[in-house]
């Protein structure tokens, strides 16, 4: 069920947390500035051309305000249902075995609105940090009782009228022990900025960004899910598999999604017998098939998809023959290796549509 936990000896001395005052790790917080909700939308899909998204083009979502952290005072606590609770500082974390993972980074969208609109709030970045699996191997979690990992950020405040003394999320132990989950301190080769959750954040590749707790200070192995507002009031959605529309599920895994980068919306294509272009596709599981339609879903042509190496978004390209000039609506539909497929309408990951015009050169 779980990856094997092998006891390791940490390469640095760490502080045994038994008997230490709770929440002492929060003393590294200097301020929340600016306070309150903030969002920076990404560019339109046709402007996300780079394989690795630069900081200037990556969306930002901050729920309660940005934490200003004294990096010299920062510490990470790992406790709960573990044999050896401990804490480490930033220098010690950086001395531990590190790993880089290239992964798509996607915002779920507003947790207070129905998930019916595809916002394409997406980027693709390289994270560097210490595998959470490694830190857990030091702490020796009780895998019989410890079913979830709670993660605390240093931010606090109010979101959508609900106040919280911290941003707290949880992960099932199965995902927490996956080799790709990182306690990260760099993005695209640079130290994490305050706006990116620095000095340290959790990174959960394949899952929505809400699970990648920013300004990370505390990890705790627990028997149950967190009862905080960001796991109860927010970021739960109706399970589409429930025909009665009653059952809820956590916003965890990313379902298959795609976007068309070329051609651009309203682009005029001259003198061609083909409509061709490319885009990006992504999901928790690898995408193995992308189909393209030019007739609003009546027929579909197979695109070429580049296989995934880690959790990066995948390039797809297409070249579909056409027999007339005029307007075309290009749609792309992704299917992952577990056979989950993008819906045509009505969901936050519904297929993209780009309108283009095909004209003869003599027009």
**Overall 3D shape:** elongated
Structural class: mainly beta
- Tell me what the CATH architecture of the largest domain is: Alpha-Beta Complex
Major sheet strand order = 1-7-6-17-10-13
- Tell me the number of helical segments per DSSP (H or I, 4 or more residues long): 3
**Percentage of residues in DSSP E strands:** 35-45%
CATH level-3 fold name of the largest domain: Sulfite Oxidase, Chain A, domain 2
How many runs of DSSP E, i.e. beta strands?
28
Radius of gyration: 22 Å
Which ranges are low-confidence, i.e. pLDDT below 50, for 5 or more consecutive residues? none
The top level CATH class name of the largest domain: Alpha Beta
* Overall average residue pLDDT: 93
**Quick one: biggest sheet?**
6 strands, mixed
- How many individual domains? 2
CATH superfamily of the largest domain: Oxidoreductase, molybdopterin-binding domain
Helix content: under 10%
Q: Which SSEs are present, and which pair or pack?
A:
Blueprint: E1 15-16, E2 29-35, E3 38-40, E4 60-62, E5 65-69, E6 75-80, E7 86-89, H1 90-95, E8 99-106, E9 122-131, H2 132-139, E10 148-153, E11 157-159, E12 162-164, E13 168-172, H3 173-176, E14 182-187, E15 190-191, E16 201-203, E17 216-222, E18 236-238, E19 248-250, E20 257-262, E21 268-270, E22 274-282, E23 287-293, E24 301-302, E25 304-305, E26 314-321, E27 326-336, E28 353-359
Parallel strand pairs: 6-17, 21-28
Antiparallel strand pairs: 1-7, 2-5, 3-4, 6-7, 8-9, 9-14, 10-13, 10-17, 11-12, 14-15, 14-16, 18-19, 20-22, 22-26, 23-24, 23-27, 25-26, 27-28
What would you note in describing this structure?
This protein is mainly beta. The model has no long low-confidence stretch (mean pLDDT 93). The protein folds into 2 domains: 15-250, Oxidoreductase, molybdopterin-binding domain (Sulfite Oxidase, Chain A, domain 2, Alpha-Beta Complex); 257-359, Immunoglobulin-like (Sandwich), CATH 2.60.40.650. It has a 6-stranded mixed β-sheet. Strands 8, 9, 14, 15 and 16 form a 5-stranded antiparallel β-sheet that branches. It is built from 3 helices and 28 strands. The relative contact order is 0.15. It has helices at residues 90-95, 132-139, 173-176, and strands spanning 15-16, 29-35, 38-40, 60-62, 65-69, 75-80, 86-89, 99-106, 122-131, 148-153, 157-159, 162-164, 168-172, 182-187, 190-191, 201-203, 216-222, 236-238, 248-250, 257-262, 268-270, 274-282, 287-293, 301-302, 304-305, 314-321, 326-336, 353-359. Its cofactor is Mo-molybdopterin. Keywords: Metal-binding, Molybdenum, Oxidoreductase. This is Sulfite reductase. Residues 251-344 form the Moybdenum cofactor oxidoreductase dimerisation domain. One of its GO terms (biological process) is sulfur compound metabolic process.
